[in-house]
Write a structure and sequence with these properties.
The protein is of the alpha/beta class. The chain contains 3 helices and 8 strands; from the N terminus they run E-E-E-E-E-E-H-H-E-H-E. It is elongated, with a radius of gyration of 21 Å.
Length: about 180
């Protein structure tokens, strides 16, 4: 993995720092994944392990996604759940989600993260709240580490199943 990165010649570099600077012909020098210097390209070190010439492009800070259910990326196209209200959507999908496996959690985490990265997101949170068939929060944490996105995992749970008037199958409910 490269230790230094030079981003240079951006048409505009948006810093979002305290002064909200927008630097024409801007760039940044990154060392060991830390931004060490930001400014006009000519003021930055000119050598790095990797150099990105961003001429004609705008460089902005990465977006932060604060709420996601990544496992749901696997069931986006279920016809019975399309174009419905929330409870219809949930009652159609909970039986499918009750069959999730650890591998499905990992694949869905990486799928959702790849989509987020492609849209400019560099940090995400995931609220995983069902744990059927041996699924664990660690399944999403390990998948996130493999893809390399900054990640904040949040563990939730469902506490009222169908037998008590809730929507999820009892098999995904926890005390």
């Amino acid at each position: 993995m490269p230790k230094t990165l030079l981003v240079k010649n951006a048409e505009l570099l948006v810093t979002m720092d305290g002064e909200r600077r927008e630097i024409k012909n801007g760039g940044m020098y990154i060392e060991d994944n830390l931004i060490r210097q930001v400014g006009p390209s000519e003021t930055l070190p000119q050598q790095a392990d990797v150099i990105l010439d961003m001429a004609g492009k705008v460089v902005i800070p990465g977006l932060v996604n604060t709420h996601h259910h990544m496992y749901q990326s696997l069931t986006r196209v279920v016809p019975a759940a399309q174009d419905g209200e929330l409870f219809n959507w949930l009652t159609n999908l909970y039986p499918i989600w009750a069959r999730l496996t650890p591998e499905m959690i990992a694949v869905s985490t990486q799928t959702a993260m790849a989509e987020l990265i492609l849209s400019g997101c560099t940090t995400s949170s995931d609220h995983l709240y069902i744990y059927p068939n041996g699924c664990k929060l660690d399944d999403s944490i390990h998948a996130a580490a493999e893809i390399g996105m900054r990640f904040h995992a949040a563990r939730g749970s469902m506490s009222v199943g169908q037998s008590q008037g809730g929507l999820p199958p009892d098999s995904v409910v926890e005390k």
